[in-house]
Design a protein that fits this description.
With 383 residues, this protein is of the alpha/beta class. It contains eight helices and 16 strands. It has two domains: 8-141 and 303-382, 3-Layer(bba) Sandwich (FAD/NAD(P)-binding domain); 147-207 and 252-300, 3-Layer(bba) Sandwich (FAD/NAD(P)-binding domain), CATH 3.50.50.60. It is 29% helix and 17% strand. Strand 5 (119-123) and strand 6 form a beta hairpin. The two termini are 22 Å apart.
Length: 383
């Protein structure tokens, strides 16, 4: 394999979240030269910037990446900040070559004759080239806010869950939480406990029969892991049925459930927020207009791959891949996508397995490329 120049690498990983770092771990173990480019100033900032009260939905035992246990009691639930610090420590522990503060704004096929079949990456005025690229920027890229938000009374304080940190950001008065998935339930419960009259608009996608914090959950975790890891995969009929729903967004309530919300006085309405009335108030599908001072949009995220100038995306915005491998664009891979292979693909738990599969394919292609270069040189020498 040719020795790379300072900006030319065998592999570049874009994103130093759990998926990108797991890829780095497997690349390093295989002796493949690579670099990881991370947009945030520090590894783990994506987790540190979530709402202050965030707890992961699985115990520390299930939140470790390959090669480094999570430094908490196995049954403890890490905070978002603890998860961010763990990822930073993981990169340091394995001496992964992470370049932080590098926001990639363009990925395209390389036009250089000496890098045929490779890729060119731009980050501001910086330029890198790589024979292969792993895109591990994750699913939570572009916060989605409905168009009607622009028509609400300007006096109503609006936040997306991506920008919410705590009740201190809200104005006095009632709060409407739009969307009832994980963040919606957590935030609704928190703002109600802080003294706000709280409404929730939207139906939940089911809920566990018990909270993930409960003793029953501790007993059930091995079974839930088995199902998420082995049953809900693209290899099973039920997994293939569930996958599109998971990618569309929204999961069952895990910690804060409907009963918990009702217990703190939250008003639940399964009707969606669909319009704005003449007074600038949000209107639900059942015609209810709500007098609120705040709206928190827990309406999820959309994939944002506009910076990738390659014809590899479907109409739904997701890349066309098989377990992260893009057959139509050799040398291009994706990680951190919901249900890339199984339900665990969107969890820290599944990052290592998905990364190992992708790096296996990357390593095989690197070896084939190296053998081709060697054979070509031998042929030239013989001639």
């Amino acid at each position: 394999m040719n020795a790379p120049s300072s900006n030319h690498h065998e592999a570049i990983v874009i994103g130093a979240g759990q998926a990108g770092l797991a890829a780095g771990y497997h690349l390093a173990r295989r002796g493949i030269e690579f670099v990881i480019l991370e947009a945030s100033r520090r590894v783990g900032d994506v987790w540190r910037e979530r709402y202050d009260s965030l707890l992961l939905y699985s115990p520390a035992k299930y939140n470790a990446l390959p090669g480094l246990p999570f430094p908490l009691a196995t049954r403890a639930f890490p905070t978002g900040r603890q998860m961010g610090d763990y990822l930073e420590a993981y990169a340091d522990h394995h001496r992964l070559p992470v370049e932080a503060g590098v926001r990639v704004d363009r990925l395209r096929s390389s036009t250089g004759a000496d890098n045929a079949g490779g890729y060119e990456i731009s980050a501001g005025d910086r330029r890198h080239e790589a024979n292969q690229v792993i895109v591990a920027t994750g699913a939570f890229q572009r916060p989605h806010v409905p168009e009607l938000a622009k028509r609400l009374d300007p006096a109503i304080r609006q936040l997306h869950s991506a920008d919410y940190r705590g009740p201190h950001q809200l104005g006095d008065g009632p709060v409407l939480i739009v969307g009832l998935s994980h963040s919606g339930a957590d935030i609704a419960h928190e703002v109600a406990e802080a003294g706000h009259r709280t409404f929730v608009s939207g139906a939940a996608h089911g809920q566990l029969p018990f909270s993930v914090d409960s003793r029953r959950a501790r007993l059930a975790w091995p079974l839930m892991r088995f199902v998420a890891w082995n049953v809900l995969t693209l290899r099973t009929p039920i997994g293939r049925k569930v996958a599109p729903k998971v990618r569309a967004g929204g999961g069952p309530l895990l910690r804060i459930r409907r009963g918990d919300l009702e217990a703190v006085g939250v008003t639940l309405n399964e009707a969606r927020t669909v319009d704005v009335d003449a007074r600038g108030r949000p209107v639900l599908a059942d015609g209810t207009a709500l007098d609120v001072a705040n709206v928190v949009w827990c309406t999820g995220f959309r994939p944002d791959y506009g910076w990738i100038e390659l014809p590899v995306f479907g109409e739904d915005g997701w890349p066309k891949e098989r377990r992260g491998v893009v057959d139509a664009q050799p040398g291009l891979y994706f990680l951190g996508i919901p249900f890339l292979y199984s339900f665990t693909s969107m969890l820290v738990l599944g990052a290592g397995r998905d990364a190992a599969h992708v790096v296996d394919r990357l390593a095989a292609r690197a070896a084939d490329r190296s053998q081709g270069v060697t054979a070509g040189k031998a042929g030239s020498t013989a001639a």
